[in-house]
Amino acid sequence: MRGNLYIVSAPSGSGKTTLLQHLLRNFKELKFSVSYTTRQARGHEQNGVDYYFTDRTAFQSMADRGEFLEWAQFNGNLYGTGRDFVEDHLDSGRDVILDIDVQGARQVKSKVNDATSIFILPPSFAELSRRLKARMLESDDVVKRRLEIAKEEIVFYRDYDYIIINDILESSILLLESIVRSGTAVPRR
């Protein structure tokens, strides 16, 4: 039986990473696809754990060879999902989860029509702004740009199978776990 593919998207600052960390701790069999990126590592990010950090030339070569299930440019950097990792795990019956933006989600849904897509929303735009500023990882200009991108991305929530408004963390974790639990109980074709 083929595994299930889950796509999770959200504007930066919505709490997606926190939700995914909880999910992966509680669903040991769920495989997380580590994305490739041309951006620089932030804080304590590790190559091969948080992302595969690569340069633009190597990334473009991989894209030209068709090694990505999807890839997109976001905020001046390239991001992509390794095709072999996803396909090998799905073919062997393992469920895979992708943390990708709306551009990438559209690409994946066009190729894997039975993928389950989940969009994480902040409780409000003001809260999103507060969260991004509280991180203190980026300059005010970068935070402002992220908020502009968030406005553009949020309108695509309608294209997703499920929407989670991440206002109370514990409730949001339970909702995400419920979606994954219901998908693993139903065999897919």
Describe the protein.
There is one protein chain. The chain is of the alpha/beta class and 189 residues long. 43% of the residues lie in helices and 20% in strands. It is built from 7 helices and 9 strands, in the order E-H-E-E-E-H-E-E-H-E-H-E-H-H-E-H. The strands form 2 sheets. Strands 2-7-1-8-9 form a 5-stranded parallel beta sheet, with helices on both faces. Strands 4-3-6-5 form a 4-stranded mixed beta sheet.
Helix content: 40-55%
Strand order of the largest sheet: 2-7-1-8-9
Mean pLDDT: 89
Name the overall outline: globular
Which blocks of ≥5 consecutive residues have pLDDT under 50? Answer: 185-189
The helix-strand sequence is EHEEEHEEHEHEHHEH
How far apart the termini lie comes to: 8 Å
Fraction of residues in β-strands: 15-25%
Number of strands: 9
Helix run count: 7
Which keywords apply here?
189 residues; alpha/beta; five-stranded parallel beta sheet; four-stranded mixed beta sheet; 43% helix; 20% strand; globular; disordered C terminus
Topology, element by element:
Elements: E1 5-9, H1 16-26, E2 31-32, E3 36-37, E4 52-53, H2 56-64, E5 68-74, E6 77-82, H3 83-91, E7 96-99, H4 102-111, E8 116-121, H5 125-135, H6 140-154, E9 162-165, H7 169-185
